[in-house]
């Protein structure tokens, strides 16, 4: 197989040299030059010739796709960067003041809500499973897809913080900000103060397609060329159900947040660091099990004896225990985690994705005595129950001081990988892209990072992409393995705020592809195999350092 790959890459290298010599024209010159730098870096590193061949593919793809992006008509709602308005789009900066101790009258309060986002006509064969670019029609629902919401406040007057999680592969910032704007308007009308609204994705690979990634790539590529050209924003014929589903899950999410606000009650908030690594592993075999990110669990215990508590957990394990090929939509192990905790304790659950990278499940399970249909969910049940048991039985110690902090920083990404720009341009996904310039246009994707802190002891660091563990925990956990011969320049971010244990959360307030350390970025990693991940669906080689540098700036500004 490797010999065949070498031959293929050799041919591509020749095509690249011809292609970049003039066939593209001036519009792709910058893209070709940037990709060529990566090729050169690989060529000069150990084992460089093979890396040179592999990276040559990046030159071809980037040059081709960037040219298409510059020719393809923009969607009607794209704007010039100079016209961007943070307030108008629904960005929230967080709480105004950073608190280092509880004020008089501070107390924890939390409200919870959970709603299904499965349409009643799910079995009609018109909805998609959001696994990948492969078109997968959902034939029915196996368990459920839900939005789960916790609204937390310390009653300091700084405003509540919303933590919501949707069973999905990912949710775009455009849809999240639609939810935000509706909730903000409702809060203002009802005398409720909210400072931070965060919507995450559980990253279930067998959930309904909330982004659009599985909705007819080639149909959209062709059809939206003409739609964009004439300024139409209507959905293409035959794809109306996907657009209706978006409206439905957004509406249900807004309702869930409102319900959570109305369900707020007082109580105590506890924290436990839970080692969930026994049930997961890095598929690259690059990060040792003991070095994987631990799970940070918040447990709210209401004062009223007859009330339900709530667990909030960031688990760094892909929700891939139920195959999308079955055609059923599921919440994967998250459904069974929720079920286990509810049946064991009576409490509620909000699960968000931690530093996922290539971290997958590692669980023993049995299908003995099950019929074929029931057996489909056996692994998800075993995994969710195992995580649930660890969470419920953890030592939560003393209650956290009622101090809540939240800050967010808006960032503008200039994509190095034009595949994501093209996905937005053909309206496969609805992330908003802004442009600057006319002839040699530059594209910018607005998104955000964030930081939520509880009791001055534990925090969630929020990132919009699918974060790799080493990005957050530092290069030390990879044993110095790298792709381009350089080192990752950042140490662990876990203790960046003194006295506070911080944990990464992926796919927070946006879904912008993979974020692997710059030195291990390999565009076509699935061809290479060992210790390398596939970065075709990444913003580019430098996205991880861009996230981290902006995160550090945000923390400094907060402190």
In helices, the fraction of residues equals: 25-40%
Could you report the average pLDDT, rounded to the nearest whole number?
88
Q: Give the termini distance in whole angstroms.
A: 53 Å
Strand order of the largest sheet: 6-5-4-2-7-9-10-12
Which structural class matches the secondary elements? alpha/beta
Number of strands: 20
**Unreliable runs:** 1-29
Query: Largest beta sheet, briefly?
Result: 8 strands, mixed
Radius of gyration (Å)? 23 Å
Question: What's the number of helices?
Answer: 14
Describe the structure.
This protein is 33% helix and 20% strand. Helix 1 packs across helix 3 (48-71) and helix 8 (333-345) packs across helix 10. Among the domains are: 1-71; 92-392, no CATH class. The protein is an alpha/beta fold. 50% of the residues are buried. The termini are far apart. It has 14 helices and 20 strands. The protein has helices at residues 2-23, 29-44, 48-71, 86-89, 173-189, 217-229, 240-262, 333-345, 372-375, 378-392, 418-425, 469-473, 525-528, 543-558; strands at 79-80, 108-116, 140-141, 146-153, 160-166, 194-201, 265-274, 280-282, 295-302, 310-315, 328-329, 348-353, 359-361, 404-413, 434-436, 442-454, 458-462, 466-467, 501-505, 514-515.
